[in-house]
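Q: What structure does this chain adopt?
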Amino acid sequence: MAEVRVFAGTGGQRFAREMCADLDVPLSPINIQRFANDCLQVQLLENCRERDVYLVQPVVRPAQESLMELLLMVDAAKGASAARITAVMPHFAYARSDKKDAPRISVGGRLVADLLETAGVNRILTMTLHAPQVHAFFRVPTDQLNALRELAAHFLPSDLSKATVVSPDLGNAKSASAFAKMLGIPVAAAAKERFDGDRVEITSLIGDVTGRDIIVLDDEIANGSTILAILELLREHGARSVRIACTHGIFANDAAHRIAADPDVVEIVTTNTVPSTGLLNHDKLTVISVAPAFAEAVRRIHSGESVSALFDPTHV
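A:
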């Protein structure tokens, strides 16, 4: 790994340190400066010439700052004659802007993918994009990891004799089925409809949840409206207890506390793809690190090995 250089933006420092510890390589220094006119400048403080450079930056709040930092990091690495530039994005915020579902609307996911390519990225390493079509926006090689194995490892020691995995919408049902298979338990799915603003209605539930210990699996929790809606439906159907599992715990607008306040919620499990969960000291929250999975992906990318086993949800 001597030819590897790892740099991190403001939002990726902690995650990058964990990655580097697993890789046994140092985190290279970086200088991010803000001028009086509010413009940013990035300087990479270590030689990148003909090196394999990895730039760690989740696109998280403030999303525009995070993204601009990453683009400038890419530009700096390109100007420093890096052999290959990989953007390591544990969370890709613009994945929700993935389609034209209204007149004259922007498709931010595609635009950000184009910006990264134009800046000089040669490869993308990310985790659990919000929709499958977002992967196709990137015209450079893109590895999309998932956290199903890490989440499953957390739940496997528990008593799962009466447990059922529930997907809060049909779009997430495939991942929920793979997760349930890892745990050896049944799966159920809900039908969700999202209206203007943050209003969500879950109209039906496919599968038996009565008297069951439920594990709700979602890719991302932002405002928590979907989770709160599924909690109400599960209560109506007689679920015994509920645990929440998600990859990206954004927990905007105090969502984590609102979810944790539900008496049926036993635990909220998320990963560290988003730097701050907003509920770090709550006794119902568990944060699992996926930095080792990213470190293994970096190791395989650098050595030319297959990465597919790391993001195949059916591979246990």
